Amino acid sequence: MEAVTKLDPVIDIRGLALSFEQNGQRTDVLRGLDLAVEQGEFIALVGASGVGKSTLLRVLMGLAAPTAGTVQVHPDPAAERPMALVFQDARLLPWRRVWSNVAFGLEKTSLNKAERRKRAMQALSVVGLADLAERWPWQLSGGQRQRVSLARALAVRPSILLMDEPFSALDVATREGLQDELIRVWRQMGKTIVFVTHDIDEAIYLADRIVALGGKPGEVKAVRTVDQPRPRKRGSIAMQDLAALVKADISAEGAPQRDDWVI
Amino acid sequence: MTRSLLNRSLPAIGLVAFLLAWEAAPLLGLAQRSLVPLPSELPAAFLREVKSGIWQTSVWLSLSHYTMGLFVGAGAGVGLGIVTGMSGVAEGLLAWVNRVLRPIPGLAWVPFAIIWFGVNQSGAVFIISVGVFWIVYFATHGAIRSVDRDLIEVAKAFGFASAPERLIKVLLPAATPGILVGLRTALGQAWMAVVAAELFGVTGLGSRMMQASSLLATDIVVVYMLTMAALYGLMDALFMFAQGRLLQWKP
Fold first, then answer.
1. What is the pLDDT of residue A253?
2. What does the pLDDT look like over A59-117, one tens digit per residue?
3. Which residue from A214, A215, A212, A216 is spatially nearest to A203, judged by alpha carbons?
4. Is A108 in contact with B158 (Cβ distance < 8 A)?
5. In which band, very low, low, confident or very high, does the pLDDT at A250 lie, cut at 50, 70 and 90?
6. B179 CA to chain A: closest CA distance, Å?
7. Contact: B158, A84; criterion CB under 8 Å
8. How many whole angstroms separate alpha carbon A136 and alpha carbon A97?
9. How far apart are CA B198 and CA A25, in angstroms?
10. Distance separating alpha carbons of residues A103 and A118, to the nearest angstrom
C-alpha cells in the first residue's frame, strides 16, 4: 500500500463560467474551466486576446464574480496576503514617490510609516531599484516602472503572484531582462505565480506548466508541462517544438485535450 | 543694450508709456478733466484713504468677505462635486436641479441675500459663495469622474474597496489638478462677487467705490480698483505657490 500525501492545490478552480450582460445581450467569456495550481508552481496562461485570460485573473483577485463554478484558494500560511496582482501597464500612482507606490498595499496593514517604508525598500532592493526610491513615477523608464509594480506586489508578501501580461508593452531587451529577473525572484521567494501572456515563447521560457486557453467562450484547451531545466535556452529546438504544440492547442477546434503532455 | 535686456524691459516701457498717455489725455483735450483722474493724483488719494483708516478697514472687511465666501462656496462645491462624481444616484437626482440653478448669476441672488441675511457680512458671504460654487462644483465633479478607472482597480486589488478608501487613496489625489484649476478660476471670480456683494451696501471695497463715485471722486475709485488688482495678484501668487507644493509630482 502506498501512502499518498498530497497538499491541497493552492488554487483550485472547478467548472468556472463567467458571462456578463450588456444592453440585454449575454456574452460568455469563460466556460467549464477547471484548473489546479500547486504550491510554488509557475503557471502560464496563454491564449489569444479576448479569450478571457485577464478575466480569469480578475476572478481570482475578487475583482470579478464568476457566474458558475467554484474558486478555492489555499494560500501558503506563511504569506501575509493570499495574492497580489501585477498589471500590464504598471499602473503606478503618479502622485506618489517610487517607495510610496511600493508601500501602497501595506497601508491596509497595521504597519506604521517607518515599517512600511522599510518593507518598501526591501522589496525595491529585490528588484534592484533601491536607489530610485525617491523618484517620481514619470522619471522612470517603462522597464523600471514595471519593476516597481512587481515590488509593490511583493511588498505585501502574497502567497500567489498574479501577473497580467506584465512585460508585453516593453522592448525585447528589457522584456528578456525582466523575465530572467522574475525567475530569480520566484526562486528566491518561493511564491506561486500565475502569469498571463499571449506570447507563447515567453510562456515556455518562464513556466513549469502552460495552460492553453482557446475558443469562445474561453476554455482550457490543453495543459502542457515544460520539462526543461533552467536557465532555459531561448529558441532551442525543444522550445520551438513545444511552441508549435501550444500554438496548435490555442487554435484547436472542438473538444479540449485534457491530458497533460510532457515534453 | 543687448537684445534680451530690451525684451525684458518691454513690459516696463509699456507701462510707463501707458501712464504717460493717461496723464496726457486730458491735457490734450482727449478726455474731460473731471471724469478721468490723473495717475499723478493717485498716490495722494491713496495716502488720504490710508490716513483716515478707511482703506485698511475696507481692505480688511473685503478680505474677510472674500475668504469666508471662497471657503464656504468652494467647500460646498468640492464636497458636492465629490458626492455626484462618485455616486450616479446623486448625480441623477441633482441633474435637473443643477440645470435650473446653474444659469442664475450671483447678482440675481442679491434680493434673497438681503431678505435672508440682511445687509451684513453674512449676506455678502452668501453672494460670494454662490458666485464661486458652480465653478468649483463642475471642476470637481468633472475631475472625479475622469479619474482613470485603472487606478481605481489598483486600489481595489490592494484591498481598498470601500468608498472612503477609494476617495482618499485614489480619487482625491488623482482629481487634485482638476480641482485646483477650478479653484484658481474661483479665486478671480470671487473678487467680482465681492464687488457685487458690497455694492448693495455691505461695508468694504465695493461700497467705498460706490460712495466715491457718487461724489465724483474718481481718483478714489481708481485707488480701490488697483487695490483689488493687487489683492488678486497676491492671492493668485499664494495659490500658485501652494499648487506648486501640492503638484510637485507632476512632470
1. 66
2. 998 888 899 999 999 988 888 999 999 998 999 999 999 999 999 999 998 999 999 99
3. A212
4. yes
5. confident
6. 15
7. yes
8. 5
9. 59
10. 9
pLDDT at A263 over 50: no
As given in the structure block, the three cell numbers for residue A68 are 458558475
| Nearby residues of B189 by Cβ (< 8 Å), 6 or more positions away | B131, B132, B135
> Taking residues B26-34, what's their average pLDDT?
79
Judged by CB atoms closer than 8 Å, whether chains meet at A63 and B158 is answered as no
Q: Return phi, psi of residue B80, to 5°.
A: -70, -35
A147 and A118 in a common domain: yes
For residue B73, give its domain range: 65-246
Q: If phi over 0 gives left and psi between -120 and 50 gives alpha, with beta otherwise, what is residue A84?
A: beta
ipTM: 0.84
**Three-state secondary-structure class, residue A166:** coil
Between positions 107 and 136 of B, the ones with CB within 8 A of A are none
Beta carbons of A57 and A196 less than 8 angstroms apart: yes
Residue B53 belongs to a domain: no
Q: Which of A91, A105, A107 sits opposite B151 (nearest CB)?
A: A91
| Contact status of B160 with chain A (Cβ, < 8 Å) | yes
Name the residue among B16, B15, B39, B45 with its Cα closest to residue B27. Answer: B39
**Total residues found in chain B within this entry:** 251
Q: Judge: A63–B153 Cβ closer than 8 Å, yes or no.
A: yes
Backbone angles phi, psi at A163, to 5 degrees: -130, 125
Range of the domain at A99: 90-156
Hunting for cell 506604521 — which residue is that? A112
In this structure, what CATH number is given to the domain that contains residue B101?
1.10.3720.10
B247/B166 Cα distance (integer angstroms): 20
Cell output for B153 = 482597480
Non-local (6+) Cβ contacts of A166 within 8 A are A86, A87, A88, A146, A149, A150, A178, A195
- CATH number of the domain encompassing residue A15: 3.40.50.300
| Strands, sheet with A219-225, edge to edge from the N-terminal-most edge strand | A81-86, A158-164, A192-197, A42-46, A209-214, A219-225, A260-262
Distance from CA of A122 to the nearest CA of B (A): 18
pLDDT tops 60 at residue A52: yes
